[in-house]
Amino acid sequence: MKFKMQSLENVRMRVEIACEKAGRPSHAVKILAVSKRHPANSVREACLNGQNQFGENQLQEALEKMGQLDDLPIEWHYIGTVQSNKTREIAQSFSWVQSVDRVKILQRLGRQRPRALGPLNICLQVNIDAEPQKSGVLPQELPELALSASQTEGIRLRGLMAIPQASADPAQQADSFRRVAAAYQELCGQGYTLDTLSMGMSADLEAAIAQGSTMVRIGTDIFGPRPVLL
Ligand SMILES: *Cc1c(COP(=O)(O)O)cnc(C)c1O
């Protein structure tokens, strides 16, 4: 699948329209291009068209792409499950980790973050619909994890990330996003300075933006369907 500039333009337009409908400025929502399983060349093309934040969920695959793209000003976000034996390389190679849901992982990432790089940006992943197969903490577990994050050197807590239950029902979709936003606002009310509410993907970015998303993570609608193998 080849990257098409028009696809990226379409996503930008959708974000702009959704922001307008929600009465929010369009710069309030960033686009994270999820390049997992897409080749480095597609990332390069997207970057040359003004996209500079990319998301990956497999360490090895991401490291290979980073090696091929180190001439570009890319900010890499890790959005996959973090295994504890991978934290060192993740802390060394990424600017962000959006999928943190354990204190132990937080602490390892903070300890292993090279100080010269500045703090690692972190989003806590929330399992907002309490789906057994999904990563993330339940909303009631957030205060403890957020406190731990704020006390860990080497990391900077930026906000929350969530992947709500897939639903064809717009009301249910909106309700999931609304509850993530409420959990985010609650943390802000507790004194945390956060700026990132990462929710919304190709199929539901409009619903997420309507509920206050500040970062949508878009794979399919930028790069096309993911190939099974690279
Ligand atoms: C793959 C992935 C996405 C992108 O999903 P699309 O439906 O292809 O836009 C977003 N977030 C996470 C965490 C992902 O793993």
- Number of E strands: 8
Low-confidence stretches: none
Note the gap between the termini.
10 Å
Radius of gyration (CA) equals 17 Å
> How does the overall form come out from the CA principal axes?
globular
Helical stretch tally: 9
What structural category characterises the helix and strand content?
Answer: alpha/beta
The succession of helices and strands, N to C, reads HEHEHEHEHEHEHEHEH
Describe this structure in words.
This protein is an alpha/beta fold and 230 residues long. The protein has 9 helices and 8 strands. It has an 8-stranded parallel β-sheet with strand order 7-6-5-4-3-2-1-8. β6, α7 (170-189) and β7 form a beta-alpha-beta unit. The protein is globular and about 45 Å long. It starts with a helix and ends in a 7-residue tail after the last helix. Bound molecules: pyridoxal-5'-phosphate. Residues 34, 36, 57, 79, 163, 201-203, 217-221 line the site of pyridoxal-5'-phosphate.
